[in-house]
Amino acid sequence: MAHRIGGPNLYGQLIKGVEVMSDNHLSRRRFLRNLAVAAPASGLMMVGSASAQELPKLALTDPLAVGLQYVEDATTSSAPNYKAGQECDNCLQIQGNEGDAFRPCAIVPGKSVSAKGWCSVWVAKP
Q: Hey, which CATH number is domain 50-114, 3.30.460.10, 1.10.290.10, 2.60.40.4070, 4.10.490.10?
């Protein structure tokens, strides 16, 4: 259903007699909702397409690594929520090829993590 609108546009210019389809109206709320869904998805697709050899390793001194309590060898973790057997290789967040020593991670975009590592956002694969 079309209706006529009139009044200033975003730039303060007067618009007279412009028809707008109300069903196709892109509200600010709808735009932001779509952006909130599309942005993370596109980031995951980009990280998923890169191989671990192309990505730099996550440094243990990186502020993200420190905040996540990341270690390259899970058995050396002193985090209170670490449980034996948890490592990046069996975490839901790890991507890339099974068997690679370092692989991309959904939590750490643009970096690779040790398959034998661990961090505080570890989640078991289903």
A: 4.10.490.10
